[in-house]
Specification:
- It is built from 19 helices and two strands.
- By secondary structure, it is an all-alpha fold.
- The chain has a two-stranded antiparallel sheet.
- Helix 15 packs antiparallel against helix 18.
Length: 476
Amino acid sequence: MKVLKILSGLALGMFLAALDQTVMTTASLTISQDFHHVADQSWLISIYLMMSLITTPIYGRLSDSYGRRRIYIIGLLLFGLGSVFSAAATSFSLIVAARGVQGLGAGALLSLAFAVIADVVPLKERGRYTLFFVLIFGSASILGPIFGGVIATQSSILGISGWRWIFIFNIPFIIVAVIQSAKHLPSVSHKLIDTFDWLGTTLFAGVIAITLFLVQTSRSVGFNVQRSILILLLIAIFSGLLYAQNQQGENALFPVMFFKNRAFVLTVLTSAVASGAVLIAMTVTSLSIQIVEYRSPIVAGLTLLAIGFGNLFGSAYANRVFSREGSYRLLAAIGLIIIAFGFLPVIFSSGITAISTGLFIMGIGSGLINQFTSVMAPITLGSLHRGAASAINTLFRALGGLLGVTIALALIFYQWKASTGFTIPNLHAKERLDFITAVRPVFIASALIVLATALLAGFMPETNKERHLAWESSKP
């Protein structure tokens, strides 16, 4: 019962942050139309994503030194403040800024839950609680577009514009989450860093900001002088970040010693590749259902539920493995192999049955991976660095998905010779078939990359529960 009280505030925070991560996919058009900024609607999504990615490792590092409770409550308050400002925004610039404040808080809400689980739950039981949070995140991500679409289409609710209720909805739950977290979250701190790494944080923010800008414009802007300058600037800033992290030692935002740990590196690599592959499959098959099969977006959305059912099955099985004694290092390799196998049906057919089957198989592999990485990441670097390890894993998972989908879509639309400014009803039969031809190499390449990563994951160091329990109990 005590553990459930501790995790209740975390569950609320994660649900809201995940919900607001996807709610704009259907609500952004309505909001941007209200403010006459339709061409800029993508900022409502990208600013939230950028701020949450930048702050995720920062919160993890700070929580290890100053305690989870303090840092998590700061995240909740920032998210709540951003929600209030978003609901009250009177211009497009103000709502974009407010979404940025929301994102600042979301970085804590999406990353610290798994670190707290590692703090308060015995290793043998962690799989069960991790499964709970994986399901919360997944369900919120699926409900986000539905919730946004339903609310945004209401012209007004109680005299207030319908879309504003997307943000008003958050406020009472944030208040409850703050109260629960203040009462029940543990306040353990280790004071691991002497000074905060502001230089590393600034350089990291620059890397994320430029990367997201390049990613967002990859499909609408060709290669030009400005983009080449940005790419060179990105390389320079990233090189500076690597140098600064090496110089900062243990005070660094990303201490070099973390990436000398083979188990940690393979864990976050597995997380990134699996996330990228699954999101590529979900995004591209959804397009295929609408373009090739000429079905509605609703049918495409319902088909994607197959991956959710598979994820539930895979996560439940991983939980059983974690509940038993012994080695579980092969879960990463097995999960990746299953994801690669899931590409087979969608490589050979664009039919809904084949897509549903492939997505279900991938969901099983994804469930294994999500459970594995969420439990393993906080373990690999020891009890003193649980927050940082969990946050970096969350960061790599998000970046893997973002970069994977963007690169895949850029390649597909480059190869697909559709009519300029096409609309789906007006596509010729040959153009629909050409889409399949453009998609197939991307699926094959994705499957091969996943298999190569599975081979690397097979070298995951042996991790025995008893050894971890004995080792962790000896730590302060």
